[in-house]
Amino acid sequence: METGKLSRIKVGVIIVAAGDSLRMQGVDKILVPLAGKPVLTWSIEAFEKNPGVDRIILVNSERHLEAVKCLTVTHKWSKVSDVCLGGKRRQDSVAAGLKMLGNCEWVIIHDGARPLVSQDIIERGLQAARETGAAVAAVPVTDTIKAAGKDQIVIETPPRARLWAVQTPQIFRFSLIEEAYQQATGDVTDDATLIEQIGGKVKVYMGSYDNIKITTPHDLAVAELLIKNHEH
């Protein structure tokens, strides 16, 4: 991609797919077929179709790198500019994607294992992020949640009305997430936590209960059913 074009990038996407699929019983969740095409393909195509997205970076594990590169060649995705190697932790993989992206006003970070991300979720996220510079897709928790100690004795039952189950995409002003990563300490399970650690405000916006993450074979079966339902 030419340097002149890089300077005009407003919205970049980092799709993280460098996990080890430990709970998939030996099945590779990123490349396993879902309704006729690899799981990762669904996420890529969602952002490829979005008119507000300018550039997509794919972050993968070493064992999948060549396979994913072949996918990009086969499908000729015009917005996928780079396929790069991830790290041991999720945050290491995102950091690699941020370094590759650069020169961007907004960055959308999405898990490649969430194939059912919709255009509505993407658009709502871009709108919500304008309020604080950081926004995360989430859904209200429907179950009662209890916090327990190592002995499995309940410590507290937080009010359900205030609890959200966080998803991706997560959208950030590039300068803000870049600063958060530069100051990152310890391990985190999502990027918004790093914004919180530096005192930033994170907006929660409505995701979708269909926007599931593929972590087990059961999730894959559920995703198949959801796709079939959407087609009818």
Helix/strand layout:
Layout: H1 3-6, E1 11-17, E2 33-34, E3 37-38, H2 39-49, E4 55-60, H3 65-75, E5 80-85, H4 90-101, E6 106-111, H5 119-132, E7 134-140, E8 147-148, E9 154-156, E10 164-173, H6 174-182, H7 192-197, E11 203-206, H8 217-231
Parallel strand pairs: 1-4, 1-6, 4-5, 7-11
Antiparallel strand pairs: 2-3, 6-10, 7-10, 8-9
Summarize the structure.
The chain is α/β, with parallel strands linked by helices and 232 residues long.
CATH topology (fold) name: Spore Coat Polysaccharide Biosynthesis Protein SpsA, Chain A
Query: Biggest sheet, strands in spatial order?
Result: 5-4-1-6-10-7-11
Order of helices and strands: HEEEHEHEHEHEEEEHHEH
Number of extended strands: 11
Main pleated-sheet profile: 7 strands, mixed
Second-tier CATH architecture: Alpha-Beta Complex
Beta-strand percentage range = 15-25%
N-end to C-end Cα span = 40 Å
Counting structural domains, the number is: 1
* Count of helix runs: 8
CATH class annotation: Alpha Beta
Low-confidence stretches: 1-8
Work out the radius of gyration: 18 Å
Query: What is the mean predicted local confidence, pLDDT?
Result: 91
Gross geometry: globular
Q: What is the helix content?
A: 25-40%
Note down, in words, how this protein is organized.
It is a single chain. The chain is of the alpha/beta class and 232 residues long. It is 35% helix and 24% strand. It has a single domain (3-231), classed as Spore Coat Polysaccharide Biosynthesis Protein SpsA, Chain A. The protein is built from 8 helices and 11 strands. The chain has a 7-stranded mixed beta sheet, sandwiched between helices. Strand 2 and strand 3 form a beta hairpin. The chain is globular, with a radius of gyration of 18 Å. The termini are far apart.
